[in-house]
Amino acid sequence: MNYPSRLIEEAVAEISRLPGIGKKTALRLALHLLKRDEEQTRSLSDALLNMRTKTTYCSRCHNIADDTLCNICSNNKRDQATICVVVDTRDVLAIESTNQYRGLYHVLGGIISPLEGIGPSDLEIDSLMSRIEKKEGDEAVREVILALSPTMEGDTTAFYLQKRLKALGVKISTIARGIPIGGDLEYADEITLGRSIVSRVAYD
Amino acid sequence: MNYPSRLIEEAVAEISRLPGIGKKTALRLALHLLKRDEEQTRSLSDALLNMRTKTTYCSRCHNIADDTLCNICSNNKRDQATICVVVDTRDVLAIESTNQYRGLYHVLGGIISPLEGIGPSDLEIDSLMSRIEKKEGDEAVREVILALSPTMEGDTTAFYLQKRLKALGVKISTIARGIPIGGDLEYADEITLGRSIVSRVAYD
């Protein structure tokens, strides 16, 4: 394609390197920015660069952070006795958006996958163990919640973690599996429906 | 939502100001950039800012340009006697991507729309007339192709332009309307199909 401007061509090329964004969408976004105030592009450009160059990883939970400790670990109001184990920052954000959890997190940075050559030593598992053993801060960790996807890899990782956590004498739990709220029984897959019957919950 | 990092929160907020990009997609893009080399974010950030701050409008065709003249107007190999009138840069790029047109363009910057209060004086129509009257360069303009969308506004604008261009004694044409290539007759709307019969083309 003959772009009327080399600068647009370069911007479109850069935007379309992002996942799920093709040339047409990239062009639409570029033309949108051209129509708006220069200030919008400037703040977008600055925000991206600041995010990439100034963020680091939390030394405790390995989540993305602005400082040595992330906003969650450094928040004293959070329940320091509960740790929720997740795969990545996206999972932390998904759980945070529910407003149902007030404990801390531990970000593994991946999932055990023999097919992709990812073993326990490639993940932040040893640091999780030492967090619990060390009993950092005043409170000891009482419960570890495994919030891993119910896939082959997730189950493998959960099984491995359970085995190692049991030795530390900490309570271990996993997020509930079942029919999604608002989901229709008719359209639920057999495995989920079957498990939801087996793990039925008694009315109080 | 409780973001673990203020910098990510700001980046997500800025990305989600783009059209068609919600918070979830913005977060996915931000996390993608965090996983990649710093260099990728840096070039994206620079490309956006350069595009926004360094591009200008072509003084002849009003397309986006890096310099006084856009790449198309300053290309001597293009047919200087034909001008294709379009609404915006997107249309220029759409036509350029066909590789079927070797003439110049004229970007109106909008379309006549009484409902939105856009009249002929808000568009680059006078500059189109003077481009043809002045016979810029060595060659005079012989043909003006109207490439406007077949909507109410597009037809109004085309009708207005035809009236004014006729006075200049230049050949006026419009892009062909009909059944799209690969389109199924069965699914064509009646107006398009009707027009495609009326404007049928004889085999040579």
Automatic annotation (TrEMBL), chains A, B:
The keyword Nucleus does not apply. GO terms for molecular function: DNA binding; zinc ion binding. It holds the Pfam family RecR_HhH. A zinc finger (C4-type) spans 58-73. Residues 81-180 form the Toprim domain. Keywords: DNA damage, DNA recombination, DNA repair, Metal-binding, Zinc, Zinc-finger. GO terms for biological process: DNA recombination; DNA repair. It comes from the Bacteria. HAMAP family: RecR. Belongs to the RecR family. NCBIfam families: recR. May play a role in DNA repair. It seems to be involved in an RecBC-independent recombinational process of DNA repair. It may act with RecF and RecO. This is Recombination protein RecR. It comes from Dyadobacter fermentans (strain ATCC 700827 / DSM 18053 / CIP 107007 / KCTC 52180 / NS114). The gene is recR.
